[in-house]
Write a structure and sequence with these properties.
Length: 102
């Protein structure tokens, strides 16, 4: 797991100080999962895609970097799809981007 810094308000900090049994990391992760759900991202699917990409040698930084390459008939394997997408929405939009492909 990676540690990230987040900014919280004084009232959040005070509340967490009063309730030091609360796992703030778990709250953060829950909020992110809720945000994924609102945006239609299946966290299990995203985890699976990340695992598959890592098995192929890709880093999170490489996957997070948006690209502007267009899809062609010759570069539709998973490696190229991962290079060409920045989010689940990009993956879901691929069939719509080339409706002539069967």
């Amino acid at each position: 797991m990676i540690t990230r810094s987040v900014t919280i308000e004084d009232i959040d900090d005070l509340y967490l100080m009063w309730n030091d049994h609360i796992n703030a990391s778990a709250l953060y992760r829950r909020a992110l999962r809720e945000e994924m759900e609102v945006r239609g991202v299946d966290s299990d699917e995203l985890r699976d895609l990340l695992d598959r990409a890592r098995e192929q040698g890709y880093t999170k930084d490489e996957l997070a970097t948006p690209t502007e390459k267009g899809l062609t008939e010759t570069n539709r394997d998973l490696n190229d799809l991962l290079k060409q997408t920045a989010s689940i929405e990009d993956l879901n939009a691929l069939p719509e981007a080339n409706p002539s492909r069967d």
